[in-house]
C-alpha cells in the first residue's frame, strides 16, 4: 500500500525560505514563494512573503530593491496599517537614496499616504517629511522649507521613523541650507539630554560638527568627530555619516586624518550602500585629496582594492580623480532622474570648500596609543547591539561558533543548534533560533504540536514551534526575540546569550526525551 504524499503549499515554502540565510538565494526563493502565493490566490502568504523580502533588502543594504516588494505588499493588503505606512516610507526613501527609482513611482506610493492624511486617518507628519526631503533633493528649497514647517508642527506618526533621529534629519536639512544656528537649536535636546535611541548621541554629534565648525567652535567639533567616527568607522549604518566626517577634515584642516579615513573606508564601497551615500563619500574624499595634494605635494598612498580596482600605490591626485569621477557620475544620474542640476551643483560646492581655520588638536592625538580593547565599551556601558557583543559573550563562555558574512552567529550546544543574529530596521533586535537535533516522523504531527503547546504553556523561553520541511520529518524549533532599541550593555548581552543557550539546550533535551 503506497503512503500518502504530503502536499506542500506556499505557507510551507515560506517557512523554508525564512530559514535560509540572507543572500541572493533567499531573495530568489522569497520572490518565488510570493509569486506562487499570488498565483494561487493566497493573499496572506503573499503579503508575508513580500514583507519578508522588504526586511531582507533592508538588512542587505540595497534598499532600492525593496521598492517592488513594497508595491506588492500594498497591492496584497486590504488597508494600510502602521507597518504598511512604514513600508511606504521605505519606498520613498529608496528614491532618495538611489536614482534607480523613478519619481512618478515614488509619488504614487506617497499619494496613498497623502490620501490618508487628507481624510484625517494618519500620516500628515510623514507625508510632510517625505515631501520635504524629495523637494530638497530636487533643489526646491522654498517648497522644502514649507514642508519642513508642516513636518515640525504635525502630530508625529509612529511610521515616520525613530523619534530621536528625526531631529537629526531636520538639522541636516537646515545645515544644507546654511542655517547653522537653526540646525544646532534643533539638535540641542539630543545633545543636552539622555540618549533615547541607540544611534545617539553619535548621529546628533556628527550632524552638529559642521555647524559648530562654522560657528567657530572647532574644539567642540573635533571632539564630536572623534567620538562619532569611532562608532561610524565600522558600523553598517555608519557609512552614510562618513562624508560629513570627511568634510569636517577638509574644513577643519585635518587633511592627513582625512586621507587615513579614505584609505580605511574604500573597501566598504565593495558592500552595497545607497548611491547617495557613495556619491557624498566620493565627493568629500575627492576634496580631501585635492587639498592634500596642494598642501604637501602629490604624494603616494596605498589604495586598497575597491570596485574592481586592484590594490595599488597611487598618488593622492590619482585617487582624487577616481573619486571625483564616481561622485560626478552619480550626481549626474540623480539629476537626470530629478530633471534638475541640483545634485551636481551641490557636489560642486563641496569640491570648492577650503579650510575655515588652522586645525585644532584632535582629542587623543598627543596621548599614548590605547591598549588593545580600549575602544571597546565597558561591560556596563549601554550602546547599540553589535555582532561583536554576541561573539564576545560566547568567547567569555569559551564556546565555539561560526560567523557568516551576514553577521549570523551559529553554534551547537549538546543537541541544540542555536543561531544568533541582529534583526529589525535598525538592527537593534537580538533574534535567536534554536533547533533541536532530534526530529519526529511527520506521522507524529499531533504529538509534536502538543509538546510545543505544553512547552509554551509551562516555559517562558524559547517560544516553541513545529516546522515541516517536507522530507517526512518534523523539525522542532524555538525562538527568542529581544527588542534592544534603547541600547544594551555587553554584560546584558552576556546574560541574554547565557539564557538562550541554557533554555535552548533544555528544550533540545526535552525533545530528545520524547518517546
TrEMBL record:
Q: Which segments show compositional bias classed as Acidic residues?
A: 364-374
Q: Which InterPro entries match?
A: Put_sensory_transdc_reg_YbjN
- List every stretch annotated Disordered: 1-22, 355-379
Give one Pfam family.
Answer: YbjN
Q: Which domain of life is it from?
A: Bacteria
Supply the name of the protein.
Answer: Putative sensory transduction regulator
What organism does the record attribute this protein to? Micromonospora phaseoli
Q: What is the lineage of its organism?
A: Bacteria, Bacillati, Actinomycetota, Actinomycetes, Micromonosporales
Amino acid at each position: 500500500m503506497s503512503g500518502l504524499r504530503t502536499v506542500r503549499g506556499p505557507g510551507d515554502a515560506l517557512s523554508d525560505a525564512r530559514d535560509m540565510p540572507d543572500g541572493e538565494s533567499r531573495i530568489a526563493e522569497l520572490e518565488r514563494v510570493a509569486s506562487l502565493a499570488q498565483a494561487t490566490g493566497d493573499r496572506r502568504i503573499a503579503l508575508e512573503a513580500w514583507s519578508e523580502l522588504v526586511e531582507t533588502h533592508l538588512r542587505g543594504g540595497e534598499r532600492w530593491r525593496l521598492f517592488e516588494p513594497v508595491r506588492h505588499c500594498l497591492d496584497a493588503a486590504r488597508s494600510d496599517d502602521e507597518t504598511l505606512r512604514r513600508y511606504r516610507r521605505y519606498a520613498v526613501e529608496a528614491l532618495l537614496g538611489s536614482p534607480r527609482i523613478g519619481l512618478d513611482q515614488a509619488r504614487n506610493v506617497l499619494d496613498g499616504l497623502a490620501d490618508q492624511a487628507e481624510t484625517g486617518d494618519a500620516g500628515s507628519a510623514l507625508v510632510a517629511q517625505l515631501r520635504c526631503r524629495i523637494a530638497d533633493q530636487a533643489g526646491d528649497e522654498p517648497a522644502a522649507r514649507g514642508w519642513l514647517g508642516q513636518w515640525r508642527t504635525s502630530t508625529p506618526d509612529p511610521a515616520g521613523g525613530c523619534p530621536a533621529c528625526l531631529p537629526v534629519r531636520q538639522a541636516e536639512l537646515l545645515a544644507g541650507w546654511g542655517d547653522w544656528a537653526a540646525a544646532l537649536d534643533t539638535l540641542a535636546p539630543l545633545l543636552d539630554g539622555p540618549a533615547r535611541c541607540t544611534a545617539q548621541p553619535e548621529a546628533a554629534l556628527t550632524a552638529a560638527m559642521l555647524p559648530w565648525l562654522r560657528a567657530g567652535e572647532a574644539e567642540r567639533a573635533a571632539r564630536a568627530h572623534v567620538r562619532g567616527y569611532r562608532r561610524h568607522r565600522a558600523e553598517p549604518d555608519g557609512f552614510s555619516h562618513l562624508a560629513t566626517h570627511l568634510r569636517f577634515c577638509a574644513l577643519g584642516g585635518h587633511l592627513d586624518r582625512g586621507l587615513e579615513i579614505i584609505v580605511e573606508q574604500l573597501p566598504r564601497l565593495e558592500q552595497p550602500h545607497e548611491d547617495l551615500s557613495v556619491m557624498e563619500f566620493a565627493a568629500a574624499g575627492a576634496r580631501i585629496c585635492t587639498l592634500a595634494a596642494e598642501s604637501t605635494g602629490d604624494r603616494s598612498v596605498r589604495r586598497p582594492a575597491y570596485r574592481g580596482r586592484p590594490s595599488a600605490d597611487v598618488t593622492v591626485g590619482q585617487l582624487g580623480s577616481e573619486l571625483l569621477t564616481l561622485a560626478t557620475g552619480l550626481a549626474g544620474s540623480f539629476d537626470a532622474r530629478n530633471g534638475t542640476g541640483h545634485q551636481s551643483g551641490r557636489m560642486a560646492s563641496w569640491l570648492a570648500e577650503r579650510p575655515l581655520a588652522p586645525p585644532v588638536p584632535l582629542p587623543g592625538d598627543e596621548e599614548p596609543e590605547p591598549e588593545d580593547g580600549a575602544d571597546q565599551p565597558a561591560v556596563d556601558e549601554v550602546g547599540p547591539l553589535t555582532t561583536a557583543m554576541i561573539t564576545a559573550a560566547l568567547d567569555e563562555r569559551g564556546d565555539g561558533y561560526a560567523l557568516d558574512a551576514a553577521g549570523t552567529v551559529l553554534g551547537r550546544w549538546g543537541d541544540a543548534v542555536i543561531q544568533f543574529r541582529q534583526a529589525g530596521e535598525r538592527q537593534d533586535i537580538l533574534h535567536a533560533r534554536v533547533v533541536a537535533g532530534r526530529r519526529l516522523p511527520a506521522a507524529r504531527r499531533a504529538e509534536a504540536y502538543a509538546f510545543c503547546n505544553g512547552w509554551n504553556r509551562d516555559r517562558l523561553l524559547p517560544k516553541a514551534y513545529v516546522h515541516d520541511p517536507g522530507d517526512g520529518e518534523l523539525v522542532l524549533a524555538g525562538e527568542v526575540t529581544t527588542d534592544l532599541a534603547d541600547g544594551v550593555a555587553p554584560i546584558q548581552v552576556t546574560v541574554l546569550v547565557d539564557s538562550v543557550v541554557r533554555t535552548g539546550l533544555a528544550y533540545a533535551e526535552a525533545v530528545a526525551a520524547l518517546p
